[in-house]
């Protein structure tokens, strides 16, 4: 799996859209995280759930 947890998933989502310098990235991540709406968290949570489910299917841990 490419993510160790949901926070790692969110960090990757932030990094995919980040265009600043590396030294400002941690602070920008915190600002980005604080600006997410409840709906954003739900959408990211659903997307992360699909990734986890796909991983578990691939490794035979679930059948559906």
Automatic annotation (TrEMBL):
Protein name: Uncharacterized protein
Organism: Candidatus Woesebacteria bacterium GW2011_GWB1_39_12
